[in-house]
Design goal:
By secondary structure, this protein is mainly alpha-helical. The protein has one domain (about 10-105). The chain has helices at about 5-35, 45-55, 60-80, 90-95, 100-105. The N and C termini lie far apart (about 60 Å).
Length: about 110
């Protein structure tokens, strides 16, 4: 006879995992904001820039931002590989997981 599945505990485990992933994403986005220097902007300025970027439908502009963001990540990873992280306390390594946002934050 098969053991019945405990759906409640499976659901709780999935919810915990989702919460952990969301927390990690927020942490990585915060690290990215700090690493790019965008933390010097006011919250209103940063939000406005991100809204403008998110609303942009021009493929050329988005592609240019993505290239700029990718180049920024490459330059950061090269400096980190040499042991010179620019005093960011390892933030570029953390923000590497947030690369899908690089196109959005490259122009911020």
């Amino acid at each position: 006879m098969r053991k019945p599945r405990d759906y409640d505990s499976e659901l709780k485990a999935l919810e915990d995992k989702a919460r952990e992933l969301k927390t990690r994403k927020v942490q990585q986005l915060g690290d990215l904001v700090i690493a790019t220097g965008a933390d010097a902007l006011t919250p209103d300025e940063l939000a406005g820039a991100l809204v403008a970027i998110a609303e942009t439908k021009e493929a050329g502009r988005r592609e240019a931002w993505a290239k700029r963001g990718a180049a920024w990540f490459r330059s950061k990873s090269r400096r980190s590989a040499r042991g010179d992280d620019g005093g960011n306390g390892g933030a570029p390594a953390q923000s590497g997981g947030a690369q899908p946002a690089s196109g959005a934050t490259g122009a911020a």
